[in-house]
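Per your request, structure below.
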């Protein structure tokens, strides 16, 4: 099977005349560190700062009947991308370097640098979505099938004061008020908002960085007057 990519659900195989000639190798992101040397102390102090975003380079070509504008439009976006050598995972990406149009039109081939964020996610994982009625505490088991902690997005619909605990520790208190409210807690973006995108951080007490699912089984407890809890992006890989 020839290589292909899928950008925001659209496969390169559907773009007339576009050929993905080569894909980047599967690799891991670099770890960012801060190194401090102190006079009088042997060695140094290394602080891990997280993982770096990086570039993946693909080689594309043109053949047969093609429309170069369709090819450019296909790449002129950002969002999620799947590479056919990792068909069950997607990366979050953006393109910051323009495709060399002169080379593409002259030689019918060019390189495309795709800037990806360090983590990858399951392309097949479904959202955990639980409805409730007359409940004061929801106990939800979440399995992170990845190989590193994940920072999920949790949507909660409810009324009044709500407590969220993860693996035995309380991480959030929510003050949703007297009217039923849906609040979306995006731990990766470190924000809370409603279904229209309006920020609701004022309703949240706690540290967004504490909402991390370890690799393996996690226990999430949501206590209060709730009618729905939905969880996505709960598995993550490097």
């Amino acid at each position: 099977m020839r290589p292909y990519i899928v950008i925001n659900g659209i496969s390169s195989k559907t773009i007339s005349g576009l050929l993905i000639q080569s894909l980047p190798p599967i690799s891991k992101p670099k770890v960012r560190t801060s190194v401090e040397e102190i006079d009088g102390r042997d060695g140094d102090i290394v602080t891990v700062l997280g993982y770096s975003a990086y570039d993946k380079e693909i080689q594309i070509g043109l053949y047969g009947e093609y429309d170069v504008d369709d090819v450019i439009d296909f790449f002129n976006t950002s969002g999620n991308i799947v590479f056919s050598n990792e068909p069950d995972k997607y990366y979050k990406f953006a393109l910051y370097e323009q495709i060399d149009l002169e080379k593409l039109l002259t030689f019918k081939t060019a390189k495309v640098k795709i800037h990806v964020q360090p983590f990858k996610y399951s392309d097949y994982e479904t959202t955990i979505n639980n409805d409730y009625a007359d409940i004061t505490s929801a106990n939800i088991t979440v399995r992170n099938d990845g190989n590193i902690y994940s920072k999920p997005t949790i949507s909660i619909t409810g009324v009044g004061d709500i407590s969220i605990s993860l693996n035995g520790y309380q991480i959030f208190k929510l003050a949703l008020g007297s009217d039923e409210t849906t609040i979306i807690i995006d731990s990766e973006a470190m924000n809370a908002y409603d279904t229209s995108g309006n920020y609701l951080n004022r309703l949240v007490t706690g540290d967004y960085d504490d909402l991390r699912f370890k690799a393996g089984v996690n226990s999430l407890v949501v206590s209060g007057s709730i009618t729905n809890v939905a969880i996505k992006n709960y598995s993550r890989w490097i």
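The longest strand covers residues 216-232.

Regards,
D.
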